[in-house]
Amino acid sequence: MNNSTVSTPWLPRSAAHRPALVLAEQPLRGAAMRFLRRSTAAAALLASALAPCLAAAAPDTPLPHAKPPAEPSGDAPPAEPPPDAPPAKPSGDAPPAAPPPDAPPAALVPPAPLTPLGADYPAGAHGDATVRLVLTVNADGTVRSAVAEDGVEPFASAAVAAATSFRFAPATRNGAPVAARIRVEVRFTEAASPAPPDASAAAPPGASAPAPERPATAAGPAPSAPRPIEVTVRGEQPAPGVSSLSRGEVRIIPGAFGDPFRALEVLPGVTPIVSGLPFFYVRGSPPGNVGYFLDGIRVPYLYHLGLGPSVVHPGIVERVDLYPGGYPARHGRYAGGIVAGETTPPLPYWHGEGMLRLVDVGGLVEGPFAGNRGAVLVGGRYSYTALLLSLAAPDVALDYWDYQARLSYEVAPEGRLSLFAFGAHDFLGSEEDGEQTTLFDTTFHRLDLRYDQAYGQGSALRGALTLGHDETGIGDGQKALTRSLGARLSLAHRLRDETMIRAGIDAVIDDNELDLGTGPDDPPGDAAPDDDNDVPIDDLLLSRVDLTVGGYIESDIAITPRLRITPGLRLDLYHSDGTVALAVDPRISARLSLGRGVTFVQAHGVASQLPSFVVPIPGFRPRLEDGLQRSFQSSAGVELALPEDITATVSVFHNAFFNMTDALGSLGLESAEDAFTLRALGAATGVELSAHRRLTRRVGGFASYTLSRSTRSIGRSQRVSSFDRTHVANVALTYDFGRGYRAGGRFVFYSGLPQRIGGATLPPISGVPGGSGSLAGGAPRWERLPPFFRLDVRLEKRWSIGKSGWLAVVLDVLNTTLSKETMPGMCDAFSPCKPTTFGPVTVPNFGLEGGF
After folding, report:
1. In whole angstroms, what is the distance from residue 89 CA to residue 66 CA?
2. Do residues 374 and 407 make contact, with C-beta atoms less than 8 angstroms apart?
3. 3-state class of 808 per DSSP?
């Protein structure tokens, strides 16, 4: 039989850092403290009510000194000692024993496996192989990410897929759970017994005999554990409230087209503007107030035009984190949520992948040089949608491309110099009477030179310089252009008492150039005369040079073995067109272990941002004249570890927005021509529920539900936000049939938007959609439009090619139910609005994927 075995050297990672808040601004103090007390009391009451029953239902966690199974089994759980049995003395290569109660404070306890650490022998593969994996084990014992550091295909993919379902008793430091990065080896052994005599005759040419679905366990005494491969300690514990998507999971989520950033809409707190378009409200904040970062580099937008994928090839993205609010102090300059992507580390072996789909073609390849001290990566995608659209809509042109390149070299022990370049382009145009008109033409480029130096135990330094180029053309030579130069320096340092301190400073210079002249005598940067109903463009944009300087500091402190808090402070100074603004953003978060598998978390903070547009547009930078946008973000909840490897969260949140620019959400409060310049107050309150079982398991799935209410007010006018959706739900299920077959489906549901049916003015806030308000000229009536639902389906068949390659046929369909969506109609204050129905927006994505 085919077997796989695992050697596991455990390496605890240091504790992470969580954001912090100290309420500093007087206008926010009263409201913030009242909600803080209420949310804390409500969440604590919820946690105390759920803790006893959940602790009883949670699987028992073995003692940290319990040895892992020497030989994994496909079905049997690892053996556990009787409750009254003394702990066995570990061997020299086994993980160290747990410290006694009087152990010194700096004692580290490595993670211990709770599930078999085996992997299925890949179907169609031959021979023996060893795959070296780097696992990031969360503080709750789940595997956050798995990267094949060494090994050949299809064994590497099989090991990575299996590793994401491993469960551990987490590493602890001073008795508190911490995240850890460990290295393991997965060994695959081909069956030695010969195949039946008629096996080759019965199989078609080129086919391989089916491999068993699970590895067998060898009889006899278990072999001793191999020696550890390497010892590296790098601590990072997820911040409270953050939602993460691992590389292995996002690529099999139905309807996401294998794109890590398009998969964000499955997370709680995320409300789509419209089905299929990758722009979202996050806990009430509009898309323009959500910041996008890749390796700490600000990205103007994440998605190509229309229903296109993200601007980054999925093969280079290791993990995507969504910070819906109260995020760490190292993230800033956005008053809404933060989407942070992390790229894969340089790997010391040649590997690559490619895709050929109905709408685009792409590829990525990476390999080492100079004796594995250096690595080079090149990737990109190109869309040929123009060819397809020419058949269906010959008057429309839509095109996009993106690229990524990285060169890294280890110039000193634990010191690496890297050059990372990436960019994207989108074009949308129309043709009439043989003349082409540009409707949208965007391009951005980033070039980042960085140096990373690790030192000590869990300490690291990074310095970087970044060049940026953002440009948007609107035809007839009109364009908005921003050239930027940024520098940043960050430090993470662990003190002797295990307290982690993070600090950083950065500065960015933006050269904004606006050219909207319509005549030969118009100087660059001047706006043409405005029509009576147009917004004066110089009220929004102006050619100028902006300077932003900022810094942050935060510290992760263990108050008790069960309680950790992370206070932090961020300062940013903005200078634009003679206007200066200072942002003082305190943050605080806490994590309290209430018992086995039950953790109470809180995150609170103030965030500030420059004025913004509805959605991010490269090169368009509104003026600072009317001041910064600000928000107070607060949340509290419970994280649960349930049986069957299921994790769940329950959270309540409240966000308050001040001086915000939200042209979409504020529609109806003022005239449409003022929508881009008006400032509003806003609030969002809600409850988020989620449950998750790794999609890479044989049977995996997730469910998320958000119940929320978002409001906007200007002066005495107050109403529900134009893009408020009361209910948003996602449910997905995937199943691995074996032999390379996998299928999955995702059901999406959300409430309709509010629509004014009649009346001359808007209802008061008490007149929620469906109610009415009184007015001398009539009684306006507001109703919810019909809800929307859709079903996405993904089917995959994968084959192994030789010992280092694989090929897959994938069909991923968005909206197989052909559902149509109803949107509010636009109208003035004296005309009733009629809703419009469009769609169905159905995207069948069929293609080939492969790699080596």
Report:
1. 9
2. yes
3. strand
